[in-house]
Request: fold
Amino acid sequence: MNTKTILNIKTDKELKKSAQETAKELGIPLTTAINSFLKQFVRDKEIIISASFKPSKYLLEIIDETEKDKKEGKISGPFNNTDDLMKHLNS
Reply:
C-alpha cells in the first residue's frame, strides 16, 4: 500500500529556486528538507526559525577599520563605570 501523498503549496518562485539550490548544495532533494521540517513541526508542535549571521562586506570593512583605530590608540575605553565614561566625555 502506498502511503505517500502530494502536498501542493504556493511559494515565491525565487524562494523555491533558492531552496532547490540550497538542498542540492547539501546533497539532498528539496522533498527531504520539507519532510524533515514537517516531521519536526508535528513532533514538537512548534516552528523554530533560525538564522545564521553573515556580516556584509561593508560591515567587515567597518570592523577592520575599527580594529585598526583601536591598535593605533584612536579609540577610548573601555570604561569600568559610568563615572569614568562621563569624566572622559567632559574632558
